[in-house]
Amino acid sequence: MSAIKYPVIIVNFKIYIQSVGRKGLELAKIAEKVSKETGVCIGVAPQTPDIRLIAENTEIPVFAQHIDPLPPGRGTGAVLPEAVKEAGAIGTLINHSEKRLRLADIDECVKRAREVGLISLVCTNTPEVTYATAALGPDIIAYEPPELIGTGIPVSKAKPEAVTAALELVRKINPGLPVLCGAGITTGEDVKKALELGTRGVLLASGVVKAKDPYKVLLDMANSCL
Fold first, then answer.
1. Which CATH number is 147's domain given?
2. Which residue segment(s) compose the domain that 83 sits in?
């Protein structure tokens, strides 16, 4: 199991064809290479069937993209937290904009993650939702305005005031709770700006997964954390 250290870059593989199976492992190994070369923590969130493949063949933090807040037993088709943990993930995304949950379900997912020893990384879409989520006690929050996701327009530049507002609201609840930001992050300069705003890192996807040269992009981002 790989621990998280800050600043951190987490790459969400989503369900891009470029990240399926062996291609996903290749991306994870690129992330591992950059992490070892720079000393910057880089984690990945592969598709559920690929968690074990990547966890067993790399030494970087692996997150699930989702868990369901169910106990073992009935629940065909659900993603069981225990199964994610056993496959080698150290944590899970919760409430990504493409897998939105009600606040009560977020609460249950955070509790189930804690029960099995998974890091809970909860995604939020507004400063107000970020504030409410902070009260649930997750391990990490990632603030991502959904209208900027996948646009190449970085939240750290397009909406810096929203990032700052989210950070201030979280500090009222839990000053030590790490907050990342995401949406449109594609360059090292975007990452640098996010850190300057006070975040502890970034959550991103297509900027790396769909890049012509993922190594070059990740290296630029990691160097911006130094």
1. 3.20.20.70
2. 8-223
- Assess whether 144 carries a catalytic annotation: yes
7-57 pLDDT, tens per residue? 999 999 999 999 999 999 999 999 999 999 999 999 999 999 999 999 999
User: Which H, E and C letters describe the chain, residue by residue?
Assistant: CCCCCCCEEEEECCCCHHHCCHHHHHHHHHHHHHHHHHCCEEEEECCHHHHHHHHHHCCCCEEECCCCCCCCCCCCCCCCHHHHHHHCCCEEEECCCCCCCCHHHHHHHHHHHHHHCCEEEEEECCHHHHHHHHCCCCCEEEECCHHHCCCCCCHHHHCHHHHHHHHHHHHHHCCCCCEEEECCCCCHHHHHHHHHCCCCEEEECHHHHCCCCHHHHHHHHHHCCC
Single out the catalytic residue among 32, 66, 108, 144. 144
Q: Which of 37, 96, 98, 115 is catalytic?
A: 96
Active site residue 115: no
pLDDT band at 1 (very low <50, low <70, confident <90, very high): very low
Count how many domains the chain has. 1
